[in-house]
Design a protein that fits this description.
Layout lengths: L9 H11 L19 E4 L2 E4 L2 H7 L4 H12 L3 E4 L2 E5 L4 H15 L10 E6 L2 E6 L5 E4 L3
Antiparallel strand pairs: 1-2, 2-4, 3-4, 5-6, 6-7
Length: about 140
Amino acid sequence: MWGEKSYLDYSWLLERAYKYLPEKPQRNKGERFILPQFEVIISGKKTFIVNFKQVADKLNREPRLFLRYFLKEIGVPGVIEEQAAALQGEVSPRTLNRLLERFFKEYVICPVCNSPDTILMKEKKIMYLKCMACGATSPVRYF
């Protein structure tokens, strides 16, 4: 009655359904978040990171904690002045941006799902990285 193809044939119906499905969108793997670079000005014996507060906000980190990491790693004193960070001594932009990449890998990216949607939590003397995407909690080195 219906010819050779039966309209109740499962495999035929499945193929027909797949033809009407829309194409899957292409997703970039992990490139949803682009790490910003520091804008650095060296004036005399001081180094200024002009966009320090904006980078801290983009990474969802408190600027004071963010600065403490850099000061400890570089070994120089410094302060936050409005939107910028002022470091005593000359520090190359390349060094600062490498430290920014290291901070991003250690204290921003979730080690389980590689999502940048994380927060830093501190309980007693231990610091944790909590992922808002997958819910994982991972201990990180306290600085």
